[in-house]
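Pasting two entries for a bug report.
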Amino acid sequence: MEKSLLVIVRHKPGRTRLLMRALQSINDQTFKKINIIIFCMEEELKYHNVDDFYLKELSNIYSVIYDENCIFNAIKMSESNYLCFMDDDDSWAPEYVSRLLSVLANIQSTYSSVNAIACHTNKVAEIAENNRIIINSTQPWNHYLNAGPVSFDVIYYRNSIPLSSCLFDKNSVIDVIESHKLSSPAFFWPFFIHYLAENDVWILPEALAFYHFRENDDFEFGNYTVINNELFDIECKIAENKMMRSIDDSSLLNVLLSNIANNSLFHKISYIENKIK
């Protein structure tokens, strides 16, 4: 079967300039068999009119979906055999897709449990100003991750593997994703923990994804996770608690219990260090 990729771009209406950059980085890929769905996360309905015209124009080229249930159905019905998620403010190097697909295929021929791959990521610090985006600096984000299967202890460090740096075998995602809210700022990390309980994820030590951070704290240009930090923390905990109550998945429960143990140990060590000081 010929390889093809489905990309779900999570878009907060009102961030047109950022979305344009994300779409450009997808269109610049050396691998061309890519289908794109723009998922407009609609909690902030008042922002929909800001870029409705632009989204109507895009709908002539891509699928534009507002309903979360429709996204799940689109993933199921898609003929693409691989899946990526991208936040509307992130970007990829041109060889991102072709490189990850090639390495994943080679790894799967030896290790059948590996159904996803993630590359190293660079953090890009930038400022959104009027009609331009100014890049201040670029630095490694998770280059300490070694080549090979991801270790469970990575779940202790939230977002150590960004959403926009992963490529999945689509069939491995179907049974996991519907338990998670794609529009939540906390979507990816609980989803990734759940996924890791059932599949291995391979690390490719090449920086092919860019995790963009802006100093702005407003809705239009701020980082979705950062400006919703309190909500992110609450929804992460709720999602993890919900997974722990799933008595039919002992492997997932063990992973989450291990995470709790790590957190508990960290707080105890911090308490002891503070006492010593």
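Entry 2 (this is the one that rendered wrong in the viewer):
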Amino acid sequence: MPLTPNLHAALIDITRTAARDQIMPRFRTLTPEDISTKSSPEDLVTQADLAAEAQIARACRALFPDALIIGEEAVENDPSLLAGLAGAARAVIIDPVDGTSNFAQGLATFGVILAVVEHGETIFGLLYDPVLDDWVMAHKGGGAWYCREGAAPRQLGPWPARPAERACGYLSLALFAPDKRAAVAATFPPYARLNTLGCSCHEYRQMALGHAQFMVSPMTKPWDHAAGALIVEECGGQVLNGRGQRWTPATPVAPITARSHHEQAAPILP
């Protein structure tokens, strides 16, 4: 079954509904009992993550009965789910609350990421902001678009390359092992600004909107990057893996480097 515009609209509606039902009622109302840790004290999961993923997964299974459904929290419980991604005829990848630490601290920089992958290639990507109820989306070969209720979609990109001294981007030292941080920090000059939002959803949105020129990360989980990588490419940019090859969910070799233009300067990690 081809992924038609009607199915795009259904996926967007599924995401918006889950955010309205499960995420926004819990924003700034979480109790300590609603927050747990996973791999480290900084790696959080909340009841909003769990409830939103469950609702989105149920709806996606009803929409695509034969698809592999991969949610971030489901993989936490069953890592073997990822093994089927590269060969799946269709998979739906869900990050129910990207930027969970921000969400748990009451910061509005979080989002929902959803991607549809076929045979290891992302064909649809959605970066949704539950707070403002707007989204950036792309389907393969169809461009990237900024959308909100009541307004015509606005196509995004292409964006020109900027010289390094005028380029801004995202790179988080906290994601690197402590013994590597000094060497990574040494790559920061001569860029105008290096920052982190603690949220892949909004970092990719900022790139798509032309406000940032690159993003570099040692973490290449598909729920963080599959949708955003497609959107950057549909804006005319480039996303590479650690071997210098085009990044896809089937080739997630670290680090990942997203650039708004193929000639855009970006930090080269040691």
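Dev reply: Rendering is fixed now. As a check, the viewer should reflect this: The chain is about 25% helix and 25% strand.
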